Amino acid sequence: MTVEPVVRVAHDRAITTLTLDSPVNRNALSAALVGELADGLTRCGKDRDVRAVVLAHTGNTFCAGADLRDPPHPDALVALLRQIVELHKPVVARVTGHVRAGGLGLLGACDLAIASKEATFAFTEVRIGVAPAVISLPLLPRTDPRALARYYLTGERFDAAEAVRTGLLTATGDDVDVTLDPVLDGLRRASPQGLAETKRLLTARVLEAFDRDADALTALSAELFSSAQAREGMTAFLERRDPAWVV
Known about the structure:
This is Enoyl-CoA hydratase. Keywords: Lyase. It holds the Pfam family ECH_1. This protein has 247 residues and is of the alpha/beta class. It has one domain (1-175, 192-247): 2-enoyl-CoA Hydratase, Chain A, domain 1 (Alpha-Beta Complex), CATH 3.90.226. It has helices spanning 31-46, 74-86, 102-109, 136-139, 145-154, 160-166, 176-189, 192-225, 228-238; strands at 7-12, 15-20, 52-57, 61-63, 91-95, 98-100, 112-116, 120-122, 157-159, 171-173.
């Protein structure tokens, strides 16, 4: 039986678009999606015709976070986030839908993130008994700490304007492509060497966080996901009910 890909690839004028295409689980970070996305980024890194990468999605959800039925190993997620940060070509997120939990880690790892005004965001980890551990590697160096404290601790939903204010997004607009077009035009006008060295400057602090904290946060993530509270939280989520601790 042929297995349909969950990441689609398209190329236009030096820009390769990798589209998350797993509508059955709202583009959640399954082992398959993480693997295919990593493979796509590797090919883009080796292809001299690729100036930059756009990370897009089908459906109304950019990424719903970790796939609770087929989660990737924390090491694989760390490797994917680091791969986005280390890629010597800019990676731009194009968001027209909702982003939750681990999906926000993808946004944090991208160099630029453009979203429509309809997009919504939430760090929902605390509501299922875990913490945004691994995804903090790209997020903490790049986003407003007071805002992260609020949204990490409460799991509240926030809009695209707030995401721009906190540094999670680069820009938002009524039409995401109208907002994105001048960004892509600028990347097409930039030299490959100039882009690579400029990105190296911009990502230095993020990579320091990976070098310093990746092992500890990977271990924390694995410990939390195997805990009794996480089992209750994930079961409640799948059964569409409140977990036992809700008062």
